Structure formats: C-alpha cells, structure tokens
Predict the structure.
Amino acid sequence: MAQLKEKIDTIKKAFQEALSKVQTLAELDQLRTTYVGKKGLIPALMKELKDLSVDDKKVFGPLINTLKAETQTILDDAKQTIINKQAESKIKKQEHFDITAYKTNVEQGHQHPYSQITEEIEDIFLSMGYEILDGPELETDFHNFTALNIPEDHPARDMYDTFWTDRLNMLLRTHTSPVQIRAMKEKKLPIAAVVPGRVFRHEATDASHDFMFLQCEGFYIDKNVNLSHLFATAQTFLKTLFKKEKLDIRIRPGFFPFVEPGIEIDMRCPFCQDGCSVCKKTTWMEIFPGGLIHPNVLTACGIDPNEYSGFAFGFGLSRLAMLKYGIRDIRHFYSGKLKFLEQF
Ligand code: PHE
C-alpha cells in the first residue's frame, strides 16, 4: 500500500517535470499518451488495485481516478495555453510583416521602341525650338504629290509605290512631306516643325523594307535660310541621338522633286567594317535626306520664294531606330514578338 502511494507520488512528480519541458502540441500529445493513454502510467496503476484489501481499494481507487482526471485537466489547460501562444506569435509576426520584402516578379509593361525613339527625337527638336505637328495618314493626291512639285504623270511618282484607295485622289501617305504643305498653308511664318508619323509603301517587304514604317519630317522656313542651317541642324540632331561627339557621316547630292538642291546624309554602317547585307555592301547607310524647299513648293503654298526660303528633311525614323538599337530586320517592330519587345 505504501508502495502504491509512493508510486503515485513519483508519477505525479515525473509528470510535472515532463510537462514543464513541453513546448509543442506534438510533445504534449506524447505526454498524454504516456500518462493517461490506454496503456499509460496512470491507468496501469488501476491494475495494481486488485492486490489491495477492500478498504485500501476504497481509498486508492478514487485517488487514482482523481489523479487521472486532474492530469487530464492539466493537459487540456496546457494544450489551450500552447494554442494561444502560437496564435499570439502569429499575430506578432504579421505585425512586423514587411510587404515590400517579398516582392513577386510582376511583369511590367513598357513603351514600344518606336514610341521611345519618337519621344527622344521630339525632345531633341523641342530643345532646338521646333514644334511638333501631326497630319492625316489618309491623304489627298494634292498634298502627297502635286503640291510637292510632283504633278500627275511625273516620273518621280514611281519612287513611291502608293496604296491608292477607292476614293478618288485619296491615298495612304507615302511620306510625311504632305504635312509640310498643310503647315505652310495654315501657319504663320517663320515655322520650325517636326512631324513624326506612319507612312505606307506598296512594296515587297524584306529586312530593310516594310509596307508601313515611321518617318520624321522636319522643316524650317524663314528669311535667309540656307543649306548650312540644314547641315548644322542635322549634325546637332544626329550627335545627340547617337550620343557621339564625332560623327562618321558624308553628305552627297540627292534628288527629290520638292527640294533644290537636294542632299543625302549617309552614316557609317554600325553593323560591319567592310560591307554587309544591311548596308548593301557599301559600309554606308542613307539616313537623312533633305534639301532647300523648292520654290515651286513655296509658291504652291502661297509663300513668296523671293522673300522666304527654307530647308526640309524627312528621315526614316524606323531606320534610325534600327541603327540606334542594333535591329537588323525592320519587320521585328510590328511582329508582336515579346522576346523582341522585352529587350527595350
Ligand atoms: N519625303 C522624302 C521621302 O520620303 C524625304 C524627304 C523629305 C526628302 C524632305 C527631302 C526633304 O522620300
């Protein structure tokens, strides 16, 4: 009997000690199994009752039962305490949760390379005092050709493979030059303007030709404007765009019916040393056509060529974008390929 009493005390003590070390619910479960589980230490004590006298049974039976019940209550309380603690620490963790620390990779949209270079070009010309103009893509024969000194049946019309429409004398503009005409007719002189925009040519596509591409027209009309103004403007523009102090360029004559004299500025091919398919084996690339506005064009717009003169240029914005970004095929621009676009 004394032995049993001792056993009960030992178990009580051991339980208290083990409980003080418990940290997790799993450990607590283990403790429950060890002490009050079916094969646990406390139920095992019950089996020892059978060797006791009836009187002792009356004392120890309830004692063991109480011990079991108490132990169970203690275990239940401990369980609740652990659950509460865990919830508390979770809240604490959230309080210190830094939402910027776990940034997921969100795909970001960005500007098309055409938009990027257009804005850059606009900024350069704005800084030189130019304004930016816009014009219709569906043009009249008059603005696209006739007023630009290209009358009907003029062979120069062959330079432009034109998309004609089923509306009489209406076409998709083949260049941005018609906006020169519109500006000269509508605006007061002097004018300095640039016109970036889409143009259309009905021709087979290859790495350097597309049926739709971007041009940028530019013109300055005032008294005493001459070629040196055009050269200086072109140089300032190209140096700024290509971020170069010295340009490897050459200037040669070029023919366009709406300028006289006409010029072409070529730049060294950035893709090769001794000729490639992009520069057609010449190592030079035509990048900047221009000239002094033909007196016939000024007259067609009601400007007296004896009083005013001006220069005009109309470069391929697509081509400059290709040179600046190292793109070898113009068709990439509107291919919609993300692999291409994501590089910008
Ligand atoms: N409009 C011409 C073209 O598209 C380019 C140009 C513009 C040439 C202005 C000279 C002056 O071919």
